[in-house]
Amino acid sequence: MAIYHLTAKIIGRKAGQSSVACAAYRSGEELADTRTGEIFRFARSERVAHAEIIAPIDAPAWATSRADLWNQVETRERRKDAQLAREFEVALPRELSLAQQRELVCGWIAAEITPAGAIADVAIHHDKDGNNPHAHVMTTMRAVSAEGWGAQKLRHWEDRSVLAGWRASWADHMNAALERAGVRERVDHRSHADRGLEEKPTQKEGAAARGMEVRGQISDRMEKNRRIREINRRIREHVVQPVVQTVKALKGAALTKVRAKIPTAPISSTLRQQAEARAQAKKGESSAAQRLDPRPPRPTPEPAQPHTDESGADLAQQAWWLSQRGRGR
Description:
It is a single chain. Helices cover 44% and strands 16% of the residues. By secondary structure, the protein is of the alpha+beta class. It has a domain at 6-197: BirA Bifunctional Protein, domain 2 (2-Layer Sandwich). The chain has a five-stranded antiparallel β-sheet, with helices on both faces. A two-stranded antiparallel sheet has the order 2-3. It has a two-stranded antiparallel ribbon with strand order 8-9. The longest helix has 41 residues, at 220-260.
């Protein structure tokens, strides 16, 4: 089933991180850090299903090259504790294809990231079994345009209300993608407490904890989630199930009342009988109209008779002979 997950964190030198190294790890691409001379190449057990860079329309050409982009970031940020990038990690629905997952991520970036002028480096990951689909989105801390980097970082992104807006927006985009795919599942970005749920939320387990279980080791996080699931099961049995049964009983009683008011004869049979009755009535009206027609029948015309005199001679023939004699004179 589809699950909701979105986290945001800062990638910075204070934690000993490099934006070039992080980009190489997430994209599966070999990258060289021109500032330190290091080359980053990571062998990943996860399969990088897709990677691309999404930049504003007026961004310079180097903004669409992963190596050039993050080396530009490393050069631009000079402080030893500089914040280099912001990273979003989001869970993707397994019910969606890779193309649909990419459309979902790119649509959210187009709505929330690039309008501010920031660049997004996207990497979609699947594990070797095609499960656990998720995306890493590294964004620049500054806006970029045709003139280059902005003078100030995007400080308004540091407000907690902006993060709350991102979380709500991702839920909206995810539910829209599920609806387009014909999937009935929906997600909610709100906490269990905000939604008024009695059940307790589980923690993200992660590949490391699951790997420990596979190797026969004990993972504290997995154990904790098992305890939470057991508690939630008891809550459903003692709280949720009685409510569901009560709702079903009320629904059944309401349906019984409605069905009692519906005629027993099938609707199709009733309509057929009405149509036959109308046809019979129309046929009877036509027969009665023929019987009551007041107009007399039309007489049959008699054949024309030749005109003769009292002796029976044909008058037309006599007139013709007289005309011929007149011409002879």
